[in-house]
Amino acid sequence: MFTKTKKGQLEIGITTMVLAVFVVLLLISMVVYFRFTYLEFEDTKEEILDQKYSGLLNVISGMPEFRCSKNGAEDECLDASKLYNFKQKILKDEIEDYYDNIFGNANGIWIDVIDPFSGNNHYLNSEFFGIYGEKETKGLIYSVPVSIYYPDYKKYKIGILKIQGEL
Questions:
Q1: Which residues 6+ apart lie within 8 Å of 139 measured at CB?
Q2: Does residue 3 or residue 155 have the better pLDDT?
Q3: Cα separation of 57 and 129, whole Å?
Q4: Among the residues of 104-154, which ranges form H helices?
Q5: Which of 72, 94, 100, 146 has minimal Cβ neighbours within 10 Å of its Cβ?
Q6: Total domain count for the chain?
Q7: According to the model, what pLDDT value does residue 15 have?
Q8: What pLDDT does residue 96 have?
Q9: Structure confidence by residue, pLDDT tens digits, 7-38
Q10: 2, part of any domain
Q11: Listed residue (155, 164, 86, 161) closest to 124, CA to CA
């Protein structure tokens, strides 16, 4: 009934080649599109994390648990004696869940003190104050300089408040 001709076979071969080229071009364009979309999502994720942890740095430096205060008036610094006892206090008082909600999923929050004072007092010699989690230096770290006040010695020192963000 139907007879195969060389012209018909040639038309089928050409159609198959055109479809194959079309499919290959379609796959290449999809790979390129999804690659750029993925990179855009990564950039957006970094921007969101930057905003999140920058906001958290501001929240931490403004918390009354750490702020310097004298006669009810707060100052623009962090109190070293409050920082020194903070981590032990929240573990002892079983209020860690409250701070888990505030600090979110930060892996660690600490303050590195630049050139600590000399003396016999342990919190004055501390090179860092651990606030939350563990001090780690791998991964993304967000930081801001802070002023630290040592009330027993009536001296100020500069520290760097650091947050180890999620990886």
A1: 107, 164, 165, 167
A2: 155
A3: 15
A4: 122-125
A5: 72
A6: 1
A7: 94
A8: 72
A9: 888 889 999 999 999 999 999 999 999 999 99
A10: no
A11: 155
